[in-house]
Amino acid sequence: MQLDVRLPIGLMFSLFGAMLAVYGFVQGAAVRHRLFGANLNLAWGLVMLAFGVVMLVFALRARGKNDGRGPAS
Amino acid sequence: MPHSLTLTGIDYAILVIYFLFVLGIGYVLKRSVSGSKDFFESGRSLPAWICALGFIGANLGAQEVMGMAASGAKYGIMTSHFYWVGAIPAMVFVAIFMMPFYYGSKARSVPEYLKLRFDEKTRGFNALTFATMTVMSSGISMYALATLLNAILGWNFDGCIIVSGLIVLAYIFMGGLTSAIYNEVLQFFLIVFGFLPLVLLGLKDVGGWSGLMAKLSPVATKAGFDAGAFSHSWANTGSANANPMGIEWFGLAMGLGFVLSFGYWCTDFLVVQRAMAAKDMGAARRTPILAAVPKMLFPALVILPGMIAIALHAAGGDFQLPAKNGGLNYDMVVPTMLAHYFPAGMLGLGLTALMASFMSGMAGNVTAFNTVWTYDLYQGYIKKDGTDAHYLAVGRWTTVVGILLSMGAAYFAAKFNNIMDVLQLVFAFVNAPLFATFLLGMFWKRTTGHGAFFGLISGTVAAAIHHGLVISKGVETGMKGGWLSVVHTYPSEMAQNFWTAIWAWSVCFVATIAISLATRRKKTDEELTGLVYSLTPKIKEHDIAWWKKPAVLGIIVLAASFGLNLLFW
Questions:
Q1: Per-residue pLDDT at B111
Q2: Strand locations in B229-339, DSSP E?
Q3: What is the C-alpha to C-alpha distance for residues B448 and B513, in angstroms, rounded to an integer?
C-alpha cells in the first residue's frame, strides 16, 4: 500500500495550524499585527488547522474504503 | 538590507518540522520503490489531481516566486502574460493533442519519444541539452535560496547550498519520482497558505484594488509611460516603447505566447514527466488542464505582491524596497514584505513557504535529470542490457551526481543578475526550436530523422547567432548579447529573448521541412503508429463523463483565461 499524500499534508497543516493558533492565543496582544490590530497567528492558524483536518478526514475515509490511494480521478 | 529578519523559536520550529515531513515522506515511500519504473515513473499509478499539483509545484521554483514578484514590481500587470498567454494555452494543447503520444507510446521520457519517432541522434542531442538545462535550473534555484537566506538571515551561503542540496537529495534518493511529486503537492499548499495572507495584508495596506491602481499611476508616469501602463496587460502593447516590458503585442504573442510557452509546457520533460506518472491515459491528459486552474490564479499570489510593493514604495510610506546598484533590488520584494507584514510565527510559515518553492524547483529538475541520464544516456549509449536493479541503482546515484552538478551551477548562476532573464535565454536556445520539431514530428508523418536533427541544430544555432547580433538597450555586449556584432538594439532584454526564440523556432521549422523533403523517411507507417497523429487511432471517450473529457475541460480553462485577459486588458 502506497502512502496517501493527504495524510502528511493533513498532519503537517493541522500541526502548523494548531501551533500558530496556540501561539497567537497565548501571546495575545504582544504579537498582534501592528497594522490592522488583528491577531494574525490565531486567525490564520485556525484556517490552516481546518484545512489540515479536512485533508486528514479525506485520507482516513479513503483508507477505510479502498486501498488508500486516494480518489478515483 | 543587512539581516532584516529575526527568527524566534516558533519560526525555527515550523522550519524544522517542515524538513522532517519532507524527509519523512521520502522515508515512507522508500518501501514502495521496488524497481526502476517506480523510481522514475512512479509506477504510472498516480491520480490526476496529485500529478496536476506536482506538475504545477515543480514549476513553482525560484523563477516563479521571486522572479515573478520582481517582474510584477518592474512591469506591473503585464507580467501576467507569463500565465494567461505564456502558459494556459500551451498547457491545454499538451493535454489534448500531445499527451496521447507521450503517454500512449512506449516512451518513458521526452527524449525517448524522439528516438521512437525519429532516430538516435535526435534523442541524444535533446537528452544532452535537456540534462544540461535541468542542472542549470536546479543550480539557479539553489543559488537564489542561498543568496536570499544569506541576505535576510545572515546564514552562511555555502552552508545553505549544502543543506538544501542534501535534503532534496535524501528524499529523491529514497522515494524517487513519487517522493518528489508528493513533496511538490505539499509545497504547493504551503506556498498558497504562506503567501495568501501576505497578499491580503498588502492589498489592505495599499488601499484595496482601487488604491493599488491609483498608486501605480505615478509609478508609470515617472517611468515615462501612460498612467495605466502598470495596470493594463495589453492596452499599451501597440509599440514596444509604450510599456515597461519593452515589447510589442506581436513579439509578446508570438515569442512568449507561442514559441517559448509551447516550447516549455509541451516539450520540457520536467513537467511532462509529472503527467506521465498518471495512472491512465485519461488522468495523464487531465493533469495539465487541472494544473492550469491554479496556474491561472497564481498571478494574484506571485505578481500582485510585486505590484503592491512598488506602489507602496513609490507612495513613500514606511514600506521601502532595498536599493541595489543605483536602482531597486526587485528580487527582495517577497522577503521585504514578509519582514514588513508578518509577526513571529507567520514569519516562519512564510519563510518555509519560500524555501519550499526553491526546493520544489530543484527537485523537479533533479528527477527529470536522473531519468533522462539513466534511460536516455546511460541505457542508450553506455550499458544497454543491464538488469532493472542495475538501472535503479544508477538512477539513485545519478541523483547524487545531479545534486553535485547543481551545486556547481549555483556558483555559476551567482554571476547573473535577473534569474528570469537567464532562464528565458536558456529556454530560447534549447527549447524554442524544439517545439517546431515536435509539432512537425507529431502532425506530419513525412518528417524525417535527418530533418528533425539538422532542423534542431539549425534552430539552436540560429538562436545563438541572433543573440550574438543583437543587444538590449543600455546593456553591455557580452553574455547579454551582441558578442558577434550589434546589428539591432531591442528596447528590453525581454524583447531580445522573445525575438531570439521566434528566430530559433522559425529557422528550425523551415529547415526541418526542407531537409525532410530532401531526405528519405526511414520509419514505416507501422513503426510510427502511436507516435504520429494521422497514423494513430483516435482515443474513444464514449464511456467518460463529459466533465472528465480533456477537450471540454480545456475549452473551459481557455475561456476563463481569455476572460482574464479581457478583464485586465
A1: 92
A2: 323-324, 327-328
A3: 9
| Distance linking the first and last C-alpha atoms of chain A | 18
Collapsed DSSP state (helix, strand, coil) of residue B388 = helix
What would the pLDDT profile of B379-427 be if each residue is shown by its tens digit?
988 988 889 899 999 999 999 999 999 988 888 777 665 554 555 566 5
CA B131 – CA B404 distance, rounded (Å): 14
B530 contacts B536 by C-beta, under 8 angstroms? yes
| Cβ within 8 Å of residue B206, ≥6 positions away | B212, B215, B308, B311, B312, B315
Query: pLDDT per residue over B454-503, tens digit each?
Result: 999 999 899 989 988 998 888 887 777 888 888 888 888 888 888 988 99
CB atoms within 10 A of CB B209: 11
* A9 Cα to chain B: minimum distance (Å): 6
Does residue A2 have a pLDDT over 60? Answer: yes
pLDDT tens, residue by residue, B358-385: 888 888 899 999 999 998 899 988 988 8
Task: Using alpha carbons, list the distances in angstroms from residue B117 to B111, B167, B347, B421, B440.
Answer: 10, 37, 50, 32, 11
Report yes or no: B151 and B165 within 8 Å, Cβ to Cβ: no
List the grid coordinates of B448: 524525417
Query: pLDDT (tens digit, 9 = 90+) per residue, B66-87?
Result: 888 888 888 888 888 888 988 8
* Mutate which: B8, B29, B55, B182, vs A, most A CBs within 10 A: B182
Measured between beta carbons, the chain A residues lying within 8 angstroms of B282 are: 73
User: CB count, 10 Å around CB of B475?
Assistant: 16
B13 contacts in chain A (CB < 8 Å):
19
d(Cα B319, Cα B206) in Å, to the nearest integer? Answer: 10
List the grid coordinates of B453. 536533427
Three-state SS for B486-551 is: CCEEECCHHHHHHHHHHHHHHHHHHHHHHHHHHCCCCCCHHHHCCCCHHHCCCCCCCCCCHHHCHH
Residue type, B99: M
By Cβ distance, the residue of A8, A32, A72 closest to B25 is A8
Among residues B121, B105, B118, the alpha carbon closest in space to that of B376 is found at B121
Q: How far apart are CA B22 and CA B359, in angstroms?
A: 10
- Measure B290 CA to nearest chain A CA, in Å: 11
By the CB < 8 Å criterion, does A73 face chain B?
Answer: yes
- C-beta of residue B44 within 8 angstroms of C-beta of residue B50: no
